[in-house]
């Protein structure tokens, strides 16, 4: 199954007709419009599509059109005789229920065929109201959303119709539809058209009132049918004479043309006005910018300007293979999240946070504390993005360390202990937490403040999981390590006593000792991204190494200050003394901005290490891919380091929109959804695929490490001639390509693969992917359809494994 | 007119009955519920309020209740005989139309009286559907929103009713309502109740289907009425026997109790879990935290736990006097902004920005470039908040300067030129742009990098606008300056040639000369908050001083580098050479995060100085008070400083949600609304109030400087014995109090005034205000009601001017 692109042609103006309610005259409006098109000029051809129709065949909407808008092409895809909602009609017909994807594909194909056959105006009429269920019982407004056809809304002229019309309009807006016009019958008693004209005028949406149609016959027989036909024919004649439908059609045409013109000019305009993040504009041309009309589920709807035949839609489904910079979890255009955002906006707007509390901020904080699985983390500090959240984490860690060790940070440099290739954001404070690199060294105020360990990296190569040692460890450990399953790599508790475990610890201990005692460095925090260092190049760190780093730091506080010992718990402050919550050696900060909240298949990626951080930062997936929000969680002990009678000792950090209600509400919705998915076993199929078949796997770890990307793909790609290494975990797939130029920013091999994924013009969708040096990675939502993922895997196999 | 608090009592469970459409059986549902209450126990008393009723008196809903739910107290506030929408009925009645505020106040008073009289259950029934217009033609869902009563939604059991019920539900959600239950009639043919039961179950909203009521008589006469009454009586008896209404009532009661319990526990829970921004938690208690149930317009609905008599609602309207940390522009819970947010969320979610463009990001960038009034600013860089936007601005400015002057910033310190008391955010990079102070000096990595000028400050004292000189200028200028009007202070062009102007320039020039040539400092940018330095203590800088600073920096590039000259325009790059766009001396950065976008009454506060910055940062009001978003705008020349064949020369800065669609869409809506308000003269009344009456005011400046706060108030307060100085501009009012302790963080005088504004328990609303040292400030939206502002002014007068 291929995803459907949104539907947009220059020659064919296609609209979806939605009704504010059932029986508001959708088909009459359609007839009026098609009739007008047919009468306009001989070049115009109208077409009418009723995807799903219920009710007696004789009364079917497409037949009505054929009678009263002569010459209009009509089609009905699915017809059910019972005049009930389609979701009930299908049950009564007892035939195979058409799948939503099939309905969408049929609508798209019909419109495409028409576009190729010279049809200039097409209407796709829905059944009932906007939320009337389709055959699979979900709302039509959701069912047809991927097409995102502009809407002709037929409003309700009856008593109560103002309300139902506006609510129907709002339901469409919440789903990202553009309503291009509103039509309704004129009723001089209720005057809904006057009220609604004024209402929609403010939104620049044209509204056209039509004369009331003749009443329907009380009974249907040959005579009444004939009389009705006659009356309707006279009615349509009257409408054509008296109502300025032509000017409405011109407005609809203009809006269609404007939409395409705008899409055509967007790249040029963006090139003139937008300063892009992380982008070298030198040599960049407008054509390098992709206009995105909209997005739904895992797909962008991207504008394809040129090289199209007339029947091809100007919009194309493109798999968002970076999950929009690693933010998407529940799909684009998610109506539940959109409604959550609107609810919080409607209930609060924003509430200034200090001294106040509101439900979304409290709910989210409590949900995180209760569910994150780290008993140390008791306090939640809100900021707006990973970078600011890490700034707060660093301020917390440094203060706690300086406080305990009595250091005066204004007089001496306090440094960070971390890993090479780490990345924590682009504000200058957290840039200083990473070693000098392409990303930061040209920033005028950058001053790297720390020491960063080189570390052993995991990848699959030639069908085997390998841990490649950096030079200094390679010497002493003799060779790289090999594992038959990823579960073996993650059997950290078992591996602690291995030669590697002992060597890692000794190496870490002696390195820190040298830094502190020979070079006089002072360290204020240990910062790690658990398992995967994302922006640094999708580096997969041996979990044992990170675990050892944490153990050495906590087990040897004397390394950092000669007088330090492991602190005893304070039972007065920590009511559950069996749980260790005091930090030792250095405060440990986990940057889970990328790796947390199910990105790697688990709520917290710290669980892979079995290390409870003292401070942890989450963002990205937190809001399911909607708005910026970040939480920095900390232990009570870290919190108390800022407690003093002096206001100036407090953590004097804040942003205007701290804990904004919209973000918190969306985060609660998003987190709860993902937690429910985990509990209900939504990912069990993936887990099964990744369960090692070998014996000797530690009990309890079975299927604990898994990916949405198939194990077979990873294994197969690891044999590909151009592939240096590959891994998948959770929603992430990473492919390192061999590169004669040596990788890094200059790498071209990965860009070549990226190009091949974009230009699959065989009628399937595109894949939008991102490249980091010689690494191409792909990332899905946690809700991605397995068929879509396997289909993308097919593209990868074709690109990397086929002998061409 | 006082604002109405939201309605919430423990003893009285009050709900609003909304219908999915008209004629869905709202009154029957109300009767069923009231009937059940009345039958429950003798302690229970039901009450029914129909604020606005249309239709024949005999058929009125409250009469129906009286007949069939005997003993229920009923009330109708406004009755219109014509069975049409209230907005049409009022026209036909030709009486005075009740104002929305009056309707709200009456509903609130009725409920309060009932709460005090032992009523345990009350329903407030709306007319028609959720969006059916009230007497003043706006939607009931908006009209009643300030009360935010939990909703009993009566769904539609007819064909099409699934759609209209869900849409009605969504319209309520978008406005921040909580739907506590759904009822509808059972229809075994359409089975809407089955579909909706499943739908609302997923949202944890109980749905109860009721038996279908007997059909209405075809005609109304004495006989049919009697028959109908009998049939209805039998129906209600049947319902009472067969439907489990009691369990629904228990659920409603439980939800009411849960809401109050939660509000009661929120402060304690927040105290346990939340680490507040800018807050010293030492000594802070749960009672210092205010639970905010919701917010609407300019008011929080704050929870008042104790000291209430039974008739008082537990929620109280509290004026958001800090405009929620200076973010609010168009009022809390603004339905238009909420719908804009939902539209973008539904259309896109988030779209990763590099290499892509989407409509909201492009529209906003173009709108800003076209409307901001500074021809230099041509490129828009998006970030998430003022702090990150300023980090970007600093990176831009430093790069441009180092590039031109050939400095190697990795080897030498490049500094910032600024003003004392400036504040640019809490990320460490921009903290370094401010001089050492309480806010930053205890941050371990803070290293102030710059020089900050002391500056002359403006305030009104004893009825006169005074400019107080810092010591070094006081000596040479002899005395403080005085002006009879604020327009005089802002007559910057005229004042340039005054003694003060000449002295300012000379002082600035010689200071910079000394810093560079004696102390060897190198400067990379000039950063200013135009006019008002907000977080630094609402410091009002003499605009002439900031103008002179810009002129000296631009006019004397040789100050910063001996070889520098004013650069000639490059006509190839700048197509309109008559507009100067090249930076000279230093790039000038305006931090308009607080002062921009109408906070001071103008789109850009730079216009007060008539200086076009090279880089400008906007945030806060940008999104009208909904979600974080920031724009850093720059000149093409600054942009080109990052252009090179090397990727690593680019501005490698970005955040995951850069240019998120929700924020951009809301910003477009918000900005366009404010621009429309300015053009349509919405603030002309304020302008008039501030037009100087004196002669000799420079032409063209009349009424150009104005405030929503009345000129009379400012003048009167400036005479108050405890007031040191006062000023108002745009939406900002600032009152400096005399403080024997010397001001600063230890100041208590301002806190005293703050307390007096909170504790006005005379039935009026509270005022939530913020204090900065010895300054208490108040800030409104641009849409605040003038009556509300004048009413707050009354509180200030009482607190500061009455002789008690």
Automatic annotation (TrEMBL), chains A, B:
InterPro entries: Aminotrans_3 (IPR005814), Aminotrans_3_PPA_site (IPR049704), DTB_synth_BioD (IPR004472), P-loop_NTPase (IPR027417), PyrdxlP-dep_Trfase (IPR015424), PyrdxlP-dep_Trfase_major (IPR015421), PyrdxlP-dep_Trfase_small (IPR015422). Keywords: Aminotransferase, Pyridoxal phosphate, Transferase. GO terms for biological process: biotin biosynthetic process. It comes from the Eukaryota. Gene3D superfamilies: Aspartate Aminotransferase, domain 1, P-loop containing nucleotide triphosphate hydrolases, Type I PLP-dependent aspartate aminotransferase-like (Major domain). One of its GO terms (molecular function) is adenosylmethionine-8-amino-7-oxononanoate transaminase activity. The keyword Transferase applies. It is found in: Mitochondrion. Pfam families: AAA_26 (PF13500), Aminotran_3 (PF00202). The keyword Transferase applies. One of its GO terms (cellular component) is mitochondrion. This is Pyridoxal phosphate-dependent transferase. It comes from Aspergillus coremiiformis.
């Amino acid at each position: 199954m291929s995803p459907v692109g949104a539907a947009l042609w220059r020659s064919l103006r296609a609209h979806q007709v939605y009704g504010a309610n059932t029986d508001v005259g959708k088909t009459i409006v359609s007839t009026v419009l098609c009739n007008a098109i047919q009468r306009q000029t001989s070049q115009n051809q109208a077409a009418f599509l009723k995807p799903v129709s219920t009710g007696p065949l004789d009364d079917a909407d497409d037949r009505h059109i054929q009678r009263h808008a002569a010459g209009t092409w009509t089609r009905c895809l699915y017809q059910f005789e019972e005049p009930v909602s389609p979701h009930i009609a299908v049950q009564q017909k007892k035939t195979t229920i058409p799948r939503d994807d099939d309905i969408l594909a049929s609508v798209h194909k019909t419109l495409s065929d028409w576009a190729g056959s010279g049809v200039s105006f097409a209407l796709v009429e829905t059944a009932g109201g906007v939320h009337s269920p389709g055959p699979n019982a979900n709302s039509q407004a959701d069912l047809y959303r991927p097409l995102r056809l502009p809407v002709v809304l037929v409003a309700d002229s009856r008593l109560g119709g103002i309300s139902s019309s506006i609510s129907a309009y709002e339901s469409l807006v919440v789903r990202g539809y553009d309503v291009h016009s509103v039509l309704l019958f004129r009723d001089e008693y209720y005057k809904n058209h006057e009220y609604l004209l004024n209402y929609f005028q403010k939104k620049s949406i044209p509204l056209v009132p039509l004369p009331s149609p003749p009443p329907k016959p009380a009974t249907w027989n040959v005579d009444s049918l004939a009389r009705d036909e006659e009356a309707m024919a006279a009615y349509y004649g009257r409408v054509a004479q008296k109502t300025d439908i032509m000017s409405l059609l011109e407005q609809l045409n203009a809006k269609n043309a404007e939409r395409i013109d705008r899409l055509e000019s967007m790249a040029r305009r963006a090139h003139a006005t937008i300063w892009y993040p992380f982008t070298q504009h030198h040599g960049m041309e407008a054509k390098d910018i992709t206009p995105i009309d909209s997005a739904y589920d895992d797909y962008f709807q991207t504008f394809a300007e040129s090289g199209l035949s007339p029947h091809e839609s100007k919009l194309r489904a493109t798999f968002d293979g970076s999950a929009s910079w690693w933010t998407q979890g529940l799909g684009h255009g998610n109506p539940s999240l959109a409604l959550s955002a609107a609810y919080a906006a409607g209930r609060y707007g924003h509430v200034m946070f200090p001294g106040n509390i509101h439900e979304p901020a409290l709910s989210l904080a409590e949900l995180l504390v209760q569910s994150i699985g780290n008993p140390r983390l008791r306090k939640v500090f809100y900021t707006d993005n990973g970078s600011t959240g890490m700034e707060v984490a660093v301020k917390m860690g440094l203060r706690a360390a300086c406080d305990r060790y009595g250091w005066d940070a204004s007089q001496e440099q306090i440094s960070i202990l971390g890993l090479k290739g780490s990345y924590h954001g682009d504000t200058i404070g957290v840039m200083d937490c990473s070693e000098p690199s392409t990303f930061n060294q040209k920033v005028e105020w950058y001053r790297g403040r720390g020491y960063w360990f080189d570390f052993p990296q995991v990848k699959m190569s030639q069908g085997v999981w390998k841990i490649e040692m950096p030079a200094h460890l390679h010497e002493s450990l003799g060779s790289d390590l090999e594992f038959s399953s990823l579960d073996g790599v993650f059997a950290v508790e078992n591996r602690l006593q291995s030669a590697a475990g002992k060597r890692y610890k000794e190496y870490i201990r002696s390195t820190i000792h040298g830094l502190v005692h020979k070079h006089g460095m002072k360290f204020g925090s240990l910062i790690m991204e658990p398992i995967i260092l994302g922006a640094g190049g999708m580096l997969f760190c041996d979990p044992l190494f990170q675990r050892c780093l944490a153990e050495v730091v906590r087990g040897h506080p004397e390394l950092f200050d000669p007088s330090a010992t492991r602190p005893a718990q304070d039972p007065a402050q920590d009511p559950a003394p069996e749980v260790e919550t005091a930090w030792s050696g250095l405060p440990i900060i986990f940057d889970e901005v990328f790796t947390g909240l199910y990105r790697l298949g688990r709520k917290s990626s710290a669980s892979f290490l079995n290390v409870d951080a003292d401070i942890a930062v989450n963002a990205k997936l937190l809001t399911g891919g909607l708005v910026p929000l970040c939480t920095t969680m900390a232990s009570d002990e870290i919190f108390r380091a800022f407690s003093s009678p002096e206001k100036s000792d407090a953590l004097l950090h804040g942003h205007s929109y701290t804990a904004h209600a919209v973000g918190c509400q969306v985060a609660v919705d998003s987190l709860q959804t993902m937690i429910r998915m985990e509990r209900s076993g939504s990912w069990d199929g993936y887990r099964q695929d990744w369960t090692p078949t070998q014996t000797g796997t530690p009990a309890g770890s079975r299927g604990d490490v898994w990916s949405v990307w198939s194990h077979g793909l990873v294994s197969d790609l690891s044999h590909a001639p151009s592939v240096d290494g590959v891994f998948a975990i959770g929603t992430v797939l990473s492919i390192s390509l061999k590169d004669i130029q040596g990788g890094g920013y200059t790498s071209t091999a990965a860009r070549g693969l990226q190009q091949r994924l974009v230009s699959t013009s065989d009628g399937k969708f595109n894949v939008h992917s991102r490249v980091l040096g010689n690494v191409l990675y792909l990332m899905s939502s946690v809700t991605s359809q397995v068929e879509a993922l396997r289909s993308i895997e097919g593209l990868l196999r074709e690109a990397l494994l086929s002998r061409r």
